[in-house]
Specification:
Helix content is 48%, strand content 23%. It is α+β, with helices and mostly antiparallel strands and 335 residues long. The longest helix is centred in the middle third of the chain and has 38 residues. The chain folds into 2 domains: 162 residues, GAF domain (Beta-Lactamase, 2-Layer Sandwich), CATH 3.30.450.40; 145 residues, Reverse transcriptase/Diguanylate cyclase domain (Alpha-Beta Plaits, 2-Layer Sandwich). The protein contains 11 helices and 12 strands. This is diguanylate cyclase. It is an enzyme of class 2 (transferase).
Length: 335
């Protein structure tokens, strides 16, 4: 039997699989070795002092339900771990105060702790039966082996999850402007491509606004770079506050921002520009300095995505912004 089990374990480990599929196969093999009615893996939550049945295999009348939770202090496992007495075929006498075991009618109980590499107790691997079974050294060896395999797999899954989270964070970082937290130039171009594709399907239109913060250099020169950074951050907040989650608000770099949104019909460009102007101009508290900012140069275009692609739309909005900048300089709006 041992050779067969080891062969099955080797075959199981040779295939890439989830923790659940691995544990379920090990529980089935554990049943064959121990001849117990129920085999199961538990997880201990130290914060809530609960023991959870994570996965279970039941082959007879006794049912250890998955998802079942019991107070850790009331469990057979805790008693076995504390007493280092991992096998009993007289549970009703040895641990008669354990109500959960009594209600399930457990008579024979075999368990081993599942320790992670840092020494922490993850949970326990158990086999239980209403019948009386003799102690088996082979069963103990298999329990220890399976507990070790499960612990290593848990650590592997944890490491893979950490790597995925780290990778996701790196990807997010590469698409995020470090100062303002807005989409950066790279993200803006990709998001705008996606917006144009969605608008084509919806047969709607896109408003694209290119924003250049007039006299930003003077804010830096007069009040310092920290004040300049605060100003950029606050402008980002003001723009984001009037846009929806499906709209695009990004910083292209320096003092240049881009805003884009889907619209149902033409004729909304001028109200959109005025909304952005109202948001940007006004009072700013920058570090210890209070300033009144007269506003930015804004170029906006109303785009039909069947007639223009995203990159061309940015160029057209940029050109419209320069026209607006020259006009503002001519009439003395920007100071």
């Amino acid at each position: 039997m041992s050779d067969i089990i080891l062969a099955r374990v080797s075959q199981t480990l040779a295939t890439e699989q989830t923790l659940e599929s691995l544990v379920r196969q090990l529980l089935e093999m554990l049943e064959l070795v121990t001849h117990m009615e129920s085999t199961y893996l538990t997880k201990i939550d130290n914060a809530t002092r609960l023991q959870h049945i994570v996965y279970a295999r039941n082959s007879s009348q006794m049912q250890i339900p998955e998802g079942f939770s019991v107070p850790w202090d009331d469990t057979l496992c805790k008693r076995a771990v504390e007493e280092q007495h991992y096998f009993s075929n007289d549970v009703a006498t040895r641990w008669q105060e354990c109500q959960a075991a009594q209600s399930l009618g457990i008579n024979t109980f075999f368990t081993t702790p599942v320790h992670l590499a840092d020494g922490s107790l993850y949970g326990t691997l158990c086999a239980a039966s209403r019948d009386t079974h003799s102690y088996s050294l082979n069963s103990e060896h298999v329990l220890h082996l399976f507990a070790s395999l499960i612990a290593r797999y848990i650590e592997k899954e944890s490491l893979v999850m950490q790597l995925r989270e780290a990778n996701a964070a790196l990807v997010a970082h590469s698409y995020t402007d470090a100062l303002t937290g807005l989409a950066n130039r790279r993200a803006v171009y990709e998001l705008l491509d996606a917006l144009f594709e969605r608008v084509r399907r919806n047969q709607t239109r896109v408003l694209v606004a290119f924003i250049d913060l007039d006299d930003f250099k003077e804010i830096n020169d007069i009040h310092g770079h920290q004040a300049g950074d605060d100003f950029l951050i606050q402008v980002g907040h003001r723009l984001t506050s009037v846009m929806s989650d499906t709209d695009i608000v990004g910083r292209l770099g320096g003092d240049e921002f881009l805003v884009a949104c889907e619209i149902s019909s033409s004729g909304q460009k001028q109200p959109f520009i005025e909304l952005l102007r109202r948001q940007i101009c006004g009072h700013y508290q920058l570090c210890n300095h209070s300033i009144h900012y007269p506003g930015a140069s804004i170029g906006a275009i109303d785009v039909c995505p069947q007639e223009m692609d995203a990159e061309s739309a940015i160029q057209a909005a940029d050109a419209a912004m320069y026209i607006d900048k020259k006009y503002r300089q001519r009439v003395g709006v920007a100071t």
